[in-house]
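Methyltransferase domain-containing protein
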Amino acid sequence: MGKGSLVKELFFNIKTTGALTFSSKSLVNKMLSFADFSEATLIVELGGGDGSITKGIVERMRPDAKLLVFEINEHFCKNLEAQFTQPNVKIVCDSAEKLDDYLNGNKADLILSSLPFSLIPKDVRTRIIEKSSAFLHDKGRFIQILYAYSLKYHLAPYFKQIKTTFTLKNFPPTLIMICER
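Structure:
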């Protein structure tokens, strides 16, 4: 699937993609700079999209680590499956609210998310955040890119510490929240 086809899908399904454009390389690098990949053996990405963040994760993760990438858009899933054929990368074409169904009781070291929480119904958003917190190792991190600071108040009951940073090197400029349990 070509980049043009992915861009078309981005615009036709704005309610599920939640973005005007894909994440810039600068945003990906800044987001992933807050993740410690040296000890991470189980990594989860919520909202694989075009694979720009997935690519950055794969480049940084240990060879023995496993990556689960959740994406609900079938076109994006097919593209991700074609891009990432490594045996330790699994594309999950399902909702992030079913995270626990795929972890088999294991906890993730890192959960990296670009989900458009402001467009996701509150009850679904709450389940995703609850499960992300519950299935994250005590020393793990949940890192979310977003465009509205108000999400911090929705994350606060589930994470003890939330740091926020900002990057102008993306369109639109983007917040990054680094959450710890």
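The chain has one domain: 3-180.
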